Automatic annotation (TrEMBL):
Residues that hold spermidine according to the record: 289, 311
Domain PABS: 231-471
Assembly notes: Homodimer or homotetramer.
GO molecular-function terms, A-Z: spermidine synthase activity; thermospermine synthase activity
Transmembrane segments: 20-48, 54-73, 85-109, 115-138, 150-173, 179-199, 211-231
Coiled coil: none
NCBIfam families: MFS_SpdSyn (NF037959), PRK03612.1 (NF002956)
Name of protein: Polyamine aminopropyltransferase
Domain of life: Bacteria
CDD domains with a match to the protein in the record: AdoMet_MTases
Class of this enzyme: transferase
Pathway(s) per entry: Amine and polyamine biosynthesis; spermidine biosynthesis; spermidine from putrescine: step 1/1
Length: 520
């Protein structure tokens, strides 16, 4: 195809103002494009996990697709105005609906990764097609050297990307949420692209092309508006598909989505989900918390520190010892703490742990609190309970790092003990033994053990792996004066510890902030 030099456009405004309007549109479209990209990364991390992998997939696929889109756009340069309007309408529709479509695939089909790759590819192609078309349009307003035009275009593009990148976490996500934020971004994208072509470059359009573009943009806006009006029912239906029909509480905190099911008058056991992952099941949570807490209580335990555990269930077990003098809970998510204090089902499960005057709560990131002078000055603690999310989830990697356990040792009393939930020893043994290597790398001795929960058919299923650590050799046992423990006996603990020790993997390197060794 032979490409002819751009013909000067017939504009309804002076050339300088027209050029400013084009650069303003570049700014808006760049902001929208980055919002789509961040939306895909955020939602994929929530639905699939391991944010490093999901971000890498989205970014690499999208950048590749942008190159493809730039090549394809060469064929549209002779009809740059129509081509740009069509690209923006397609981008507004695809980007605006991407979050809803991704969530639907996860909720009803249980698999979101193919949709993630597909939308990353489609959005990348459309974003890549923008630049060659905009270059042609800006040259049609006023011819200038290619270097100057590229500099102006990319300056507006990069500033728009900055605004979009800041607007997503600080405005769109907390105020509108993922679905409505994406839909509104799509509407802004459609209006910006359509208005530029239908008004500024209307002299380039035939009557038929003008009618087609008006209709297409109107349909896109109507569809986005309808979807925006239906986000409430859609979220409820999708949430029911994921969690079941007995969702009682769904809160999007600044940290994560918190969902409670059951635990009400219907008699269904309570379940707590954080970012779509089951963290507490009322059926068997006592097995986990008994195993996490009570082996660490075999020794002095007057002052106890709980890292995480905002649901209050580990605190419940600690308060069963009358000689515990103080329990300090450091929990990042204030929404979880609020529910643990106010939700009737969760309060019944934790037995009103936060009403006990011995309990003090600090709403803070455990790593930052331990690192700060105030946190380091507190203690020492006879027992530290690390009740944190699985180490394989990327945001939690720093809470299972050598640096983190080094900070823990600063507040651990001489003869004190650290209990760590290290993940599933059966499903991900390498991750568990990496936690073990990391704890030992700061000078602590460890004793591994595992607790399983039987299924309804009395079959064994993968359970929870734990580490008990101290500066001196660890003797894994239960306190002599202990409360009744329905799932944990000295004999059972000894059997699980022996079995875990036989499966030890050696030669693993510790995980650090600079070299995290956990994988989802």
């Amino acid at each position: 195809m032979v490409h002819h030099p751009p013909v000067p456009a017939r504009l309804p405004v002076p050339a300088g103002l027209g050029r400013l309007l084009v650069l303003t549109t570049v700014f808006v479209c760049a902001a929208c494009g980055l919002v789509y990209e961040l939306e895909l990364v955020a939602l994929a991390s929530y639905l699939i996990g391991d944010s490093v992998t999901q971000a890498s997939v989205v970014l690499s696929v999208m950048v590749f697709a942008m190159g493809v889109g730039s090549l394809l756009a060469k064929r549209l340069r002779d009809r740059a105005a129509v081509g740009f309007a069509a690209v923006e309408a397609g981008l507004a529709l695809t980007g605006g609906l991407s979050a809803m479509a991704l969530y639907a695939c996860f909720a009803w089909y249980g698999q979101a990764r193919p949709a993630l790759v597909g939308f990353s590819l489609a959005i990348g192609v459309l974003i890549g097609a923008e630049v060659p078309l905009l270059m042609t349009l800006i040259q049609r307003i006023r011819r200038q050297d290619a270097g100057g035009a590229v500099a102006d275009l990319f300056a507006a593009d990069y500033v728009g990307a900055l605004v979009g990148g800041l607007a997503f976490p600080f405005l769109l996500l907390p105020v509108l949420g993922q679905l409505t934020g994406a839909l509104l971004t799509g509407a802004v994208n459609a209006v910006a692209g359509g208005a530029l072509v239908l008004w500024l470059f209307r002299g380039d359009l035939s009557a038929r092309a003008r009618w087609v573009l008006v209709t297409a943009n109107a349909l896109v806006l109507v569809l986005l508006a309808v979807c925006s009006a239906l986000t409430g029912p859609f979220e409820r239906a999708a949430r029911n598909a994921v969690y079941g029909a007995d969702v009682r509480v769904a809160v999007q905190s600044e940290v994560q989505e918190v969902v409670l099911t059951g635990g009400g008058a219907d008699g269904h056991p309570l379940s707590l989900f954080l970012d779509g992952r089951l963290r507490v099941s009322g059926d068997d949570e006592y097995r986990y918390h008994e195993a996490l807490v009570h082996p660490a209580m075999a020794g002095p335990h007057r002052d106890v520190l709980v890292l995480g555990g905002g649901d209050g269930l580990a605190v419940r077990e600690l308060l069963r010892y009358p000689d515990v003098g103080s329990v300090t809970v450091v929990e990042l998510d204030s929404a979880v703490l609020r529910l643990a204090r106010t939700d009737a089902g969760l309060v019944a499960l934790n037995r009103g742990a936060y009403r006990d005057p011995r309990v003090r709560v600090v709403a803070a990131d455990a790593f930052e609190w331990l690192r700060a002078p105030r946190g380091a000055a507190e203690g020492p603690y006879d027992v530290v309970i690390s009740d944190l999310p699985d180490p394989g989830v990327t945001p939690s990697a720093k809470l299972y790092s050598q640096e983190f356990y080094g900070l823990v040792t600063r507040v651990l009393a001489p003869g004190g003990r650290l209990a760590v939930h290290g993940g599933d020893l059966d499903v991900r043994p390498r991750t568990f033994w990496t936690v073990d290597a990391t704890v030992r790398s700061v000078g602590l001795r460890t004793a591994p053990y595992e607790v399983r929960a039987p299924t309804a058919r009395d079959e064994r299923r993968p359970g929870w792996g734990f580490l008990l650590a101290a500066r001196s050799p660890v003797r894994l046992r239960l306190p002599d004066a202990r409360p009744y423990l329905p799932s944990l006996t000295p004999e059972k603990l000894g059997e699980e510890a022996h079995e875990a020790a036989l499966r030890r993997e050696t030669g693993l390197l510790p995980s650090t902030l600079m070299h995290p060794r956990y994988a989802q």
